[in-house]
């Protein structure tokens, strides 16, 4: 199968769906001429110029206008530039987009997508580095997708572009250039279906995004020690795939959850609590969580490396539950 | 501009309908029949009515937490509004939104809004959609004087101007943002002066004069429909009632409010109609009776309606909520 980058997979998804659906348009800062700050939109440079729009730096309108445009019959894809800047426009997201349908008794089809880069990059420091997907899992009202491979990126994003519910997509900065197999033919990945990225029998590691790859590296090393690790990539946090997670837990009886967002009250806490509530009898060890330390992402490389989890954090956690 | 008798009487009837709805809402709230908060539009009816007379069904509005008047003037069902105020099953939001969150997307009402200024970015989005769809619809975004001090106001006006969107920003300056006087919280005397910063026409008008509102909005709507972009209109009015029903109103005196009542839009307009021979005492009585009957019918509908079943609280979050509720 051909191999393309994560960025190219995103670009293909948008282009394919834009050619099919004239109501899709995409907008944000630095996208139409620049291709996005991490080049995520390079594959669509020069295409559909009337529907790919550079906007002012106005987060509240970038997000709030998505709601208005969706209600008026379009299918907007708004870029958030850096996940940290979601906070700048949070009123429009949490008070308007995420509440509109519910508080109006189910009115309107809110087919809108917010997407953009999140996660650490090299010394981008606290306001350009954070992974904040948990917040959008905590507040009801938006579906959360967080792909880890080009294949998943394209398949999930194509589904998002056909969804009639609001979707937020977190794309890790360190993954945009990653290459992976993506079929030429059309495919869609449904939300709420996790992917077992590696089969194993001793420990289940539940991860998303960059931490899927760190977990796979950890699994390779642990295999040398005779430990068989199963890596479950959730791919979507709302909804999340309880069935696949439970199946894996019932097989391995031991669980590690790995995410880059803060460990304290990160989404791993929700998954761990659910497993503990519903599968307590299957557990042979306490569930361990891997996440960033509970400080902001610091600038200096050794500080950043200390705060942000990697494969070694996963290895250590797996060893602790064996 | 010479306006037809039919249109003038429509203005009057629509304002009287809103007034009666609000008086009844106040009464019901004070009787303890309505949960939550009620923010009344009494004294501001001319703005909703004058503005909305320029709109078609396919045009959009965004409203405020003082939105009953906007809804009724845009053609919303009074029964469904009243049922929502009661928190009943057949209310506009099936009892999930209440007064502050009523919407009727089917007639272009993209939501009242509990957040001051929250509707401005939504209006801009609807404007973007209209432009991309190459339609000649327009959006009116209603907002109060307090909202004009929020960042959302600045972002929305700049954006609408940059992209020349068909959005009319209709400020209802009722002199109070919650309990704060506009003079104490706002850097300019006229909110319309701020239009200069966004390179769009800005005008302040008497918001208690329904004809002035109608004619000013008409011009802005025509400009927007013809691709001329946005307008900022400040309609100066006065909030005759408290911020919400039950507001002790420590920030003003009863004497101040009493002085403002003679300028309220309905009796002012009524006088004009009598003088012009457009209205007789008998017709006036009929119009008020019709409005009262319509409100009573809505109350009856709401009182006879059932409450939603508790588990209906889990519906309406998404089109497809599969596995999204845990």
UniProtKB/TrEMBL annotation, chain A:
Domain Transketolase-like pyrimidine-binding, chain residue ranges per copy: 4-178
Cofactor: thiamine diphosphate
Gene3D superfamilies assigned to the protein according to its UniProt record, in alphabetical order: 3.40.50.920, 3.40.50.970
One Gene Ontology molecular-function label: oxidoreductase activity
Signal peptide: none
The entry's keywords: Oxidoreductase, Thiamine pyrophosphate
Protein name: Acetoin dehydrogenase E1 component beta subunit
Organism of this sequence: Caldisericum exile (strain DSM 21853 / NBRC 104410 / AZM16c01)
Recorded name of the encoding gene: acoB
UniProtKB/TrEMBL annotation, chain B:
Keyword Oxidoreductase: yes
Domain of life (superkingdom): Bacteria
Cofactor(s) needed: thiamine diphosphate
Any one GO biological process: pyruvate decarboxylation to acetyl-CoA
One Pfam family linked to the record: E1_dh
A molecular function GO annotation: pyruvate dehydrogenase (acetyl-transferring) activity
Dehydrogenase E1 component domain ranges (all copies): 14-311
The keyword Oxidoreductase appears for this protein: yes
Keywords: Oxidoreductase, Thiamine pyrophosphate
InterPro entries to which the protein is assigned, alphabetical: DH_E1 (IPR001017), PDH_E1_Alpha_Subunit (IPR050642), THDP-binding (IPR029061)
Protein name: Acetoin dehydrogenase E1 component alpha subunit
Native organism: Caldisericum exile (strain DSM 21853 / NBRC 104410 / AZM16c01)
């Amino acid at each position: 199968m051909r191999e393309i980058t994560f960025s190219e997979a995103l670009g293909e998804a948008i282009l394919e769906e834009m050619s099919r659906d004239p109501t899709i348009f995409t907008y944000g800062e630095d996208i139409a001429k620049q291709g996005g700050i991490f080049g995520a939109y390079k594959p669509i440079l020069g295409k559909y110029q009337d529907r790919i729009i550079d906007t002012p730096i106005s987060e509240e309108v970038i997000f709030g206008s998505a709601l208005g445009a969706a209600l008026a019959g379009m299918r907007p894809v708004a870029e958030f530039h850096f996940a940290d800047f979601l906070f700048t426009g949070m009123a429009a997201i949490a008070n308007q987009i995420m509440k509109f349908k519910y508080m109006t008794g189910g009115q309107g089809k809110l087919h809108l997508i917010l997407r953009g880069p999140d996660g650490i990059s090299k010394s981008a420091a606290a306001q350009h580095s954070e992974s904040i997907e948990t917040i959008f899992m905590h507040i009801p009202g938006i579906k959360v997708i967080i792909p880890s491979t080009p294949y998943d990126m394209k398949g999930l994003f194509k589904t998002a572009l056909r969804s009639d519910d609001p979707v937020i997509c977190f794309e890790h900065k360190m993954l945009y250039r990653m290459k992976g197999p993506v079929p030429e033919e059309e495919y869609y990945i449904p939300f709420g279906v996790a992917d077992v990225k590696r089969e194993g029998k001793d420990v289940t590691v539940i991860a998303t995004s960059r931490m899927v790859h760190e977990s796979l590296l950890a699994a390779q090393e642990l295999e040398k020690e005779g430990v068989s690790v199963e890596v479950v990539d959730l791919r979507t946090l709302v909804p999340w795939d309880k069935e696949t997670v439970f199946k894996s837990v019932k097989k391995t009886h031991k669980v590690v959850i790995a995410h880059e967002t803060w460990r304290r009250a990160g989404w791993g806490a929700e998954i761990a609590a659910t497993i503990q509530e519903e599968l307590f009898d299957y557990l042979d060890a306490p569930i361990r969580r891997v996440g960033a330390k509970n400080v902001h992402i610091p600038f200096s490389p050794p500080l950043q490396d200390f705060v942000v989890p990697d494969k070694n954090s996963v290895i250590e956690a797996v060893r602790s539950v064996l | 501009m010479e306006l037809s008798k039919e249109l003038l009487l429509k203005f009057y009837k629509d304002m009287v309908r809103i007034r009666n709805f609000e008086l009844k809402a106040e009464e019901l709230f004070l009787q303890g029949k309505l949960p939550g908060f009620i923010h009344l539009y009494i004294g501001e009816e001319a703005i909703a009515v004058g503005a909305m007379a320029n709109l078609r069904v396919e045009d959009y509005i965004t409203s405020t937490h003082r939105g009953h008047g906007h809804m009724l003037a845009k053609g919303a069902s009074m029964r469904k509004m009243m049922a929502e105020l009661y928190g009943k099953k057949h209310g506009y939001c099936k009892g999930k939104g209440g007064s502050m969150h009523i919407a009727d997307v089917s007639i272009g009402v993209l939501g009242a809004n509990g957040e001051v200024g929250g509707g401005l970015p939504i209006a801009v989005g609807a404007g973007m959609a209209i432009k991309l769809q190459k339609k000649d619809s327009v959006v009116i975004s209603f907002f109060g004087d307090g909202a004009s001090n929020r960042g959302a106001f600045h972002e929305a006006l700049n954006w609408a101007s940059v992209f020349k969107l068909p959005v009319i920003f209709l400020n209802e300056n009722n002199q109070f943002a919650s309990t704060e006087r506009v003079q104490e919280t706002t850097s300019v005397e006229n909110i319309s002066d701020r239009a200069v910063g966004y390179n769009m026409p800005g005008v302040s008008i008497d918001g208690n004069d329904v004809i002035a509102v109608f004619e000013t909005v008409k011009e802005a709507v025509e400009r927007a429909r013809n691709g001329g972009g946005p307008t900022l209109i400040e309609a100066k009015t006065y909030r005759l009632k408290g911020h919400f029903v039950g507001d002790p109103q420590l920030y003003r005196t009863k004497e101040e409010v009493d002085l403002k009542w003679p300028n309220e839009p309905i009796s002012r307009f009524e006088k004009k109609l009598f003088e012009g021979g457009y209205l007789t005492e008998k017709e006036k009585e009929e119009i008020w009776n019709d409005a009262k009957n319509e409100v009573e019918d809505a109350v009856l509908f709401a009182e006879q309606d059932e409450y939603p079943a508790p588990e209906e609280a889990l519906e309406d979050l998404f089109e497809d909520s599969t596995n999204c509720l845990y």
